[in-house]
Amino acid sequence: SVAPFFPNMAALSAWFWNERFWLPHNVTWADLADPEPGVEYPKAGHVLSALPLALGIFAVRLLFERFVARPCAYLLRIQAEITRRAQPNAILEKVFTSITKYPDARRLDGLSKQLDWDVRRIQRWFRHRRNQDKPSTLTKFCESMWRFTFYLYIFTYGIRFLWQSPWLWDTRQCWYNYPYQALSPGLYYYYVTELAFYWSLMFSQFTDIKRKDFLIMFIHHLATISLISFSYVNNMLRVGTLVMCVHDSSDFLLEAAKLANYAKYQRLCDSLFALFGAVFMGTRLIIYPLWVLNTTMFESWEIIGPYPSWWLFNILLLVLQVLHVIWSYLIMRIAFKAMVRGKVSKDDRSDIESSSEEETDTPPPASRSAPPAKGENGTNGHLAAGAWQQD
Q1: Once rounded to an integer, what is the mean pLDDT over residues 315-320?
Q2: Spatial separation of the C-alpha atoms in residues 273 and 220, rounded to whole Å
Q3: Is the CB of residue 372 less than 8 Å from the CB of residue 387?
Q4: Do the beta carbons of residue 343 and residue 362 sit within 8 Å?
Q5: If 142 and its partner were Cys, which of 20, 65, 170, 195 is the partner (CB 3.0–4.6 Å)?
């Protein structure tokens, strides 16, 4: 019946919002519900305002890619590749969607007998079918230009906002008088805009061409949204802005390197990637642990003391640091390979396959399908385990 459902929901809500988990000792939700006149504290309902804003950002992205990014691509002589569509065939389509996109020699022989096609014709069909699902260089350029624009904007805004904030210069200010810290309009805008952007990335995954890192990036975006929302509800916004700014500092450089790669400016691409690697490792292996983790783990312990959600927040930040180490290793590995080859790796994930593949009847090497790690970003990291451009 419907009647018992609502008491159960009330009990579930009371359990989820347990004050002893979310708040420091001797603080209750009632203490935060009635602030002084002109003062507002973060509320859980505020994060819902990110959803309509995310739809707006998604709409702006579509307009930006069509009327700004695409003309820029044409100026750089980047055109959409013309790919030959695979001939409709129910049997091969079932194999492609349900079994494998790279049939081995044994399966090719079986299909050849079943369809009365020669093996090369079947290989050609699978190559054309794979290419149908891959975004063109034009599509990737437009996507990267949108991300570059947003990351540069939000990083610039974050630096400008934090420059006027006392906790940038003294991180202990993140914890004085916690959790009775007022929510300013600038702080609210910074947080909700960042949260809305990652919601928009979630939406766009279902409308963009589906890529092989779909699940990895979906989990990354979900983790980012959860971490941002968690810190907002917990009123850890001050230290949260430091975390976001540290991660935003390198993302626009990665997208800039991708843009140079798609436009075939190899030297510029290599230089931007080297700069990205230096900023990434400097911010995430030095600044993040010595500045951000130091204040969340040690300064906060001295000022407010630990409590359950404090432990969870710090565990998540430590997991993030582990990922930083892994991604930094991947960057150094890519940089080493680049020095050996003389240039940064090309984009493995989405390139149109060449006709030379017709001559092979074996799947591509394992490195082609190595899944990306994103971490980002993240918070924000958009690195791949196989090739740096794989986002």
Answers
A1: 92
A2: 22
A3: no
A4: no
A5: 65
